[in-house]
Specification:
The protein contains 14 helices and 19 strands. It has 485 residues and is α/β, with parallel strands linked by helices.
């Protein structure tokens, strides 16, 4: 029914999206955020004039993001996007390089410099990735995942070929090896498993839909960074009448006719609740394996060196790297990713200076109280070890940076855990296995009127998919309030 009271617990992108849409639908919405700022993992910091995102650093599916702001009557607040070309530069342990462009012909030319036969591999891989998107990706994103029956009905509408293609999917690494001869491009494809915090040797080939999305819809930079997008979302929901409480850690419990929600023992009555937090603990699935965490350095660089916007510096042995990470160890030779936003957006750094976001994957911390406490203590020493690894690789590939870089901040798995990420895991649920994505926690909770949003639920992580989870949660909550379902 219109005018119902809805609580949103957690002010990440999914919670903000749900809150705004529910308010627009006529409900009285109160949002509780435990931290001092909105955004969840999508935070930004400004240090001595440098602005750097500390969470997501790129945007895909721009039409979905624009549509979300349009639904919130907030198109006027949306920061402009810039499509990146090249999209990302890749450097390998043997000194070779590869550049990903949105244009496949240019990407194939770059691949052919590694080995001429890889030109054909680029075209065949992206053709199969597009088929995977049509067969599995589109139906997965069309509606909330409520079970295999509904999903398979959506797949079936695409024909028997789509159903057969889904049945034959192997691992992402196997798909890469099918199309590419060099370990370089197999590493390139395998990297996309880490977008869900997984290993390419255990994640479904369905994750090939990610490079397809980047090719088909582009990789974009938001002017001012993802933090500017969060700021715009915050303005949009407040303008729609959402009451926002920061620094307020709220709890909820089922009571007659709804939920009691609030920071205190008594709380207030709400008819429905949307929880924008990882749901594994609530679902009593906290013993399941977790996706990867990460270690981040925020750097200031003197001058404006000619660094790409996005760069990946691969380790020498991909299989060993993932084996170590999922055995709970730091990688001996880690892959290093860095983002240089001022390459595209000069407003992110003052004249004569550059800010870099630099990250390596790290294992999630154990969840048990004793082991978790030990892991937190261990990171006090491990952080320096990982910093040395990161600088060694950065300076090996870009020696001109040596002596011109200063650390202005860092984030460890401990910091992520303190913000509610289970074990510091970036994505929580680990979608390994052929049917891993279908085991992801669902949006509909276990009691009437309870819904989840965020990267830990369907459809997964990344700014646009988290927005989509918020859209689904709002739609389902409104249906429940209207029809009691």
């Amino acid at each position: 029914m219109k005018g119902s009271r809805v609580a949103v617990i957690g002010g990440g992108i999914g919670g903000l999206t749900a809150a705004g849409l529910l308010a627009k639908d006529g409900h009285a919405v109160t949002l509780f955020e435990a931290g001092p700022a909105l955004g969840g993992k999508a935070q930004a910091v400004t240090v001595e004039g440098l602005t750097l995102d500390t969470g997501p650093t790129l945007l895909t599916l721009p039409a979905l993001v624009r549509s979300t702001f349009e639904q919130l009557d907030a198109r006027d607040l949306l920061p402009p996007f810039t499509a990146l070309d090249p999209q990302c530069t890749y450097r390998f342990a043997d000194g070779c390089g590869f550049t990903a462009y949105q244009d496949l012909a240019r990407m194939a030319d770059s691949a052919a410099e590694l080995r001429p036969a890889e030109r054909k591999g680029v075209h065949s891989f992206y053709a199969e990735a597009a088929a995977i998107w049509r067969a599995a990706g589109e139906p997965y994103l069309e509606a909330p995942f409520e079970g295999m029956a509904g999903f398979m009905a959506r797949v079936a509408r695409r024909g028997i070929g789509a159903m057969l293609a889904g049945m034959k999917l192997d691992t992402l690494h196997a798909l890469a090896a099918k199309h590419f001869q060099t370990h370089h491009l197999q590493q390139y494809v395998g990297r996309f498993a880490t977008y869900a915090g997984g290993s390419p040797y255990a994640s479904s080939a369905a994750f090939a839909l990610i490079p397809h999305i980047e090719h088909a819809y582009g990789v974009h930079h938001v002017r001012g960074g993802i933090g500017a997008l969060v700021e715009a979302l915050g303005q949009a929901v407040r303008r729609l009448g959402v009451t926002v409480h920061l620094d307020t850690r709220a709890r909820f419990e089922r009571v007659s006719g709804g939920y009691r929600v609030g920071p205190g023992a008594e709380g207030a009555h709400f008819d429905s609740v949307v929880v924008n937090a990882d749901p594994l603990a609530s679902l009593r699935r906290e013993s399941e394996p977790l996706s990867l965490s990460g270690f981040v350095l925020l750097l200031e660089v003197e001058g404006r060196p000619a660094l790409p916007h996005h760069t990946v510096l691969f380790g020498g042995d991909s299989r060993r790297e993932f084996d170590e990470l999922f055995a709970g160890q730091l990688a001996t030779d880690p892959t290093v990713y860095f983002c240089n936003p001022s390459a595209t957006d000069p407003s992110m750094a003052p004249l004569g200076r550059t800010g870099l976001f630099v990250m390596v994957n790290a294992p999630a911390m154990p969840m048990g109280e004793g082991p978790a406490e030990q892991a937190r203590r261990d990171w006090e020493a491990l952080a320096e070890h990982v910093r040395v690894q990161m600088f060694d690789k950065l300076f090996r590939h870009y020696p001109a940076l040596k002596g011109h870089v200063r650390v202005v901040g860092q984030r460890t798995p401990v910091d992520l855990a303190a913000r509610g990420a289970p074990g510091g895991s970036i994505y929580g649920f680990l979608p390994h296995g052929r049917f891993g994505p279908f085991r992801r926690p669902r949006i509909r909770g276990g009691t009437p009127g309870l819904f989840y949003a965020g990267g830990g639920t369907h459809p997964g992580g990344g700014v646009p998919l988290v927005m989509l989870s918020g859209q689904f949660a709002a739609r389902m909550a409104s249906a429940h309030l209207r029809e009691g379902t």
